[in-house]
Each structure stands twice: as structure tokens, then as C-alpha cells.
Amino acid sequence: MDMNHGSNSTTTEHACKISMLWNWYTVDACFISRQWHIRSVGAYAGTVIAIFFLVILLELFRRLGREYDRKISREYYSLNRSGAAKGKGFNSLENLSDGSAPPCPNVLPPFRPSIAQQAIRSFFYFVQFSAGYILMLLAMYYNGGLILAIFAGSYFGFFVSSWDTVGRVNTPEARGQTCC
């Protein structure tokens, strides 16, 4: 029986380095699972770049969700306004049952998405939530490179995708919902 505790092995097994404290590990860093084991500086650089673009993609996907919401809302109000102008809309005189004064012609019922539209909206939310959760898990490794990639990606992603939110005022007049 060999009692030699020395290592004569020539294998170069690299164990995962995981730290819950701030670190700058590159080679042998592991993220989320053992299969995501960084074995070279190039692999680490690729991971940082991929995370940077994942955050940008997340911001662009958020923009896509906002655009979809605007599209379905615009279609709803366009369809209902054209129907109301022809006397067939929600506020037409045909719909009065108590003989009271006619309602304001510009007031439409609140928009509620159809089941298919809500399913699409839910898919947008699912992707955003899932990507955000994975990014949060990656940030919890406290790896400086990953955290900087997440911060830089959020900056550039917001820079590219948020031009649509500037200058919009959420008033009834801006939404075209004024009465008479």
C-alpha cells in the first residue's frame, strides 16, 4: 500500500474559482454551473463581451415590447375613433338607452388587449425577466469584469434604445382623450 502523499500526477486539473467577495478572477473562474468554466483569458474576454451584448439585447427587447404596446394601442384607438365618427362606435347615439345627453364623442372605453395580444406581451415580459435574473445571478459572482460589462451594456443599451421615451407627456390631451 503506497502511503506517499506527494503528487506524481502530471494532470493539470483546474478547479473552479468561485468567490462571493469582489474578485478579478479570469482563468478558472466558473459562472452559474461547472460547464461555464473559463479556461483561458480569451474565453474570459469572450464571456465579458457576450454579457455586454446580452445587456444591450435586453434593452433593445424592452424597446420592442414598448413598440408592440404602442402598436396595439394605436390600432385600437384608430379603429374605435373611425367607428365613432361613422356613428357606430362606443359613444354613438345608437348606444344611448336612457335618453340622456349624448356622451363626449372623444371618450373611448379603456383598451384591454385580446388574449393573443396579452400572450405576446407576456412573452416580452418573460424574456426580460429571465434575462434580468440571469444577469443578476452573474453579478452575484462579484467578478469585476462581469459587473463592468453589465454596467457598460446597460448604459449603451439604454443609450441606443430609449430615444422613444423623451418628450412624451402622459396627459389626457397628449393621449387624445380630451372631451368636447
How would you characterize this protein structure?
This protein is mostly helical. It has a domain at 50-85 and 114-164. It is built from 4 helices and no strands. It has helices at 41-85, 115-139, 144-161, 172-175. α1 packs antiparallel against α2 (115-139) and α1 (41-85) runs parallel beside α3 (144-161). The longest helix has 45 residues, at 41-85. The radius of gyration is 28 Å and the shape is elongated. The relative contact order is 0.16. Mean pLDDT is 81; it is low at 6-11 and 88-93. InterPro entries: Cop_transporter. This is Copper transport protein. Belongs to the copper transporter (Ctr) (TC 1.A.56) family. SLC31A subfamily. Its main location: membrane. Keywords: Copper, Copper transport, Ion transport, Membrane, Transmembrane, Transmembrane helix, Transport.
